Structure formats: C-alpha cells, structure tokens
Amino acid sequence: MINTLLLPELREMLATDDQAALREFASALHPARAAEFMEGLSASEAWAVLQASDLAKQVEIFDFFDEPLQVEIVELVEPKQIAALVADLPADDRVDLLKEIDRSVAETLLPLLPLAERRETLRLRQFPEGTAGSVMTTEVARLSERLTVREAMESVGRQAEDLETIYYNYIVDENNHLQGLISARQLVTHYGKPETPIADLMQRDVVTVHASDDQETVAAKVADFDFIAIPVVDDQQHLLGIITHDDVIDVFREEATEDAHMAGAVDPLDQGYLETHWFTLVWKRGLWLSILFVAAMLTAVALNNYESDFQKVPWLVLFIPLVISSGGNSGSQSATLVITAMTLGDVALADWWRVVKRELLMGLCLGGGLATAGYFCAFWMLDDATPIEALVLPITLVMVVICGTLCGGILPMLFRRLGLDPALMSSPFVAGIIDIAGIVIYMNVAVAMLERL
C-alpha cells in the first residue's frame, strides 16, 4: 500500500528531474525497501531513479529488484552505460543475470566488463546449473597462515569492501590450498593479543563442499551445521569460493517451489506464475494431465473387465470410490512423508528395508482401522448382503491400504536410485497407480469370496 502511494511522488521527481530528491530517496531507505517502493515503475523509470545515486547504491538497490525487472533494465539500457553496475554485482548474481538476459546482449556486455570480473564470470559459467559451483561467490576473505592477529585484521579491513561476508576468513597457502578458517569473532576476541599467530587460533578441520556437489545437498549441509557460509573447493582442495546463507535460502526456496509444482503434477516453472506465458502453462500442466488421463483410462479399462461381476453383484459398485480413495490417500501420505524425509536427509537409500517394514506396519494399522469402520458401514448399508459377504469390503481395505503405503514409501526411493527426482512420484501419480491396483484387488477379493458362497 505504501509503495503504491509513493509511486506518484517518484514519478513526479522523475518528471521534474529532481536529482536531489531522487538521491535522498535512494540513500534514506534500506536498499530492499527502496526496491520495494519502486515496484510498479517501468524499467526506464527504475533506471532513471538508480542513475541519481552513486554506483555502490545502484548495485545495492538493483540486487533487490525482481529478476524480470533486472533483465528488462539490462536489455533496455545501453551496454556501455550499465556495464559498471553489472561488474559490481556479486559474482554469483552477475552470472545468473547474464544467463537470463538475451544472448546477444550478454555477448555485447561481457567484453565491457573489467578483465578480472570477465574472467571470473566466464569461469563460473562453466559450472553446470544446480551445482555448488553455479551458486558460489568468489568474493571471499583469504589470509596467510603466517599472519598475526593484528596483521589479519588489517588484511580483512583492506578486503572488506569487496567481500559479501567477513565473518569467516579462510586461511590458504601460497597456492590457494585451503588450510583452515578463523572467524571475525576470534580475531576480535584476541585483539588484546595482537601478536598471536593466527595459526594458533585457526580451525583446521574445515567442512567443505565440492564444486560439483548438488546445490540441494550443499544447502542441507549448511543447514545441518548452522553455518553462515561454507567453502567450495576442487579436487586439489583449492579454495574456489563460498556459498553464503542467503544463497542457501534461495536454493531452499527454489527446491521447495519445484517440489510443490511436482507434487501437484505440474512441470516446474522457469519464471513466476504471472510472468509465464499462458501457452507455456498449458504445456507444463497439460503434459502431466495427459499422463494422469492415461492412468485414469487404465482404471476405466480395469473396471470394464469386471462388468459381468458388477451385474451379478450390483452393490460392489457402491464402494469403489471408498476403496480407491482409501488406497490413494494412504499412498499419498506415505509418499509425502518419505519424500520430505529424503529431502531433509532423514532417510537414505540404505534405509529402504526399514521404510518397507515401517510402511507395512502403518498399512496394517491404518487399514485395520478403516476396515473395521468399513465393515459396519457395509453391513448397515446393504440389506441384501450377508455378514460374510460384507467382509469383502474390510478385507479389500486392509490390502489396498497396505499396497498404498508400500507404493508411497518405496517408489520415491526407487526414483532416487534411478537418478530421478523423488518428487516426480508425487501424490497424483501414487494415487493413479493405487486406483488401478485398488480395483484389481477389490474385484479379485469379491470374486474369490462370493463364488464360494
């Protein structure tokens, strides 16, 4: 609401070219708030507001813009005018931005970057999407093991302006091999003993990640150890960069969004919902709907095969929704629990037998409870069914629920074993599989029992 009210004022400042007011607006607010208040401005208007400030403030505010606005600004402004801003962005953000903008614009912009930033950008672009290398920043405090506390603090002070964080300072040798780390807190704590060698204080057993590690695994490790940042190394233990907590939050948001889309049987979106073209939405939704439609058709085929049995015992039709929903719901619950546990690292592929035993027990308990209720419902609803005939429903429910829990628990692990995302085995797919299995189980139990009566 506030930023909506502020828009007319910003536009009036732009119309009157009130540079002093625009500069005051940018400097008086936190960059995140300034970016929020600029929502609703066009790309050209946003760029005009930024130009009223110095480069450092431009970078701070620009970094908080939504990605579509960033892309639009970079593609709109002359490359020579915006090259300095792009060069001053954190390395990982710069690489992400260049991947999103038009290829021709990126190819024009890249040679305009200073040599060091251009080399750094080209090196980071070589890491595959979704790996630790693709999300790391190379702006990291590096210290020599030979420094004292006083010398280390002076070195950090000289580097600080260009660094994303100085809480962790990494000790490297002359060949950039990671030797250890010392925190800013340790340096400040020992400030009273300035000649103490940092080699006596540093932590040598440093938790690291490899540049090729999956970003989701890296994020989980940072969360497990409660780090602010984690160093990224190569095969020779060279320090390549760090992944900071804000990058980890972005990874978690990205992975959670992707899993949520898959759980709803939607191919993950590359952009926001409103930014995604309607035809792209149709394709991403229609693809999976078609697969689910085929599964539903198989259910219809299964039902058609038992048409003669339904004619002999019409009341069997009444409980089809109950049977398939019980199996599908129990399977969806198991799939959700196991996928979440795998994401959090609570369950590994080696735990598959424990998962099977656990879900089998769950299926027996849950199926037994539903079967008891189902038996009394069937006996109460059916005037022409004997107590023995009514047993068809509870026996089926126990078997279908066990089938559902086992499928929901095992299939995500199977997908992980095949190198696929477990979230693909989401609730709609588990439910579709159990629908078919439920019909087959239900009718085979019914035929086996009723033929003997």
Helices and strands, with pairings:
Blueprint: H1 2-15, H2 19-28, H3 31-37, H4 43-51, H5 55-62, H6 67-76, H7 79-88, H8 91-100, H9 103-109, H10 115-125, H11 132-135, E1 142-144, H12 149-159, E2 168-172, E3 178-183, H13 184-189, E4 209-210, H14 215-225, E5 229-233, E6 239-244, H15 245-263, H16 278-304, H17 307-312, H18 320-344, H19 352-381, H20 392-417, H21 427-450
Parallel strand pairs: 1-2, 4-5
Antiparallel strand pairs: 2-3, 5-6
Helix pairs in contact: 3-5, 4-6, 5-7, 8-10, 14-15, 16-21, 18-19, 18-20, 18-21, 19-20, 20-21
Short description:
The chain is about 65% helix and about 5% strand. It has three domains: about 1-125, Alpha Horseshoe (MgtE N-terminal fold), CATH 1.25.60; about 140-245, CBS-domain; about 280-450, Orthogonal Bundle (Tetracycline Repressor, domain 2). The chain is mainly α and about 450 residues long.
Report on the structure:
The structure is a single chain. The chain is mostly helical. It folds into three domains: 126 residues, MgtE N-terminal domain-like (MgtE N-terminal fold), CATH 1.25.60.10; 102 residues, CBS-domain; 173 residues, Tetracycline Repressor, domain 2 (Orthogonal Bundle). It is 63% helix and 6% strand. A three-stranded mixed beta sheet has the order 1-2-3. Strands 4-5-6 form a three-stranded mixed beta sheet. α5 crosses α7. The N and C termini lie far apart (72 Å).
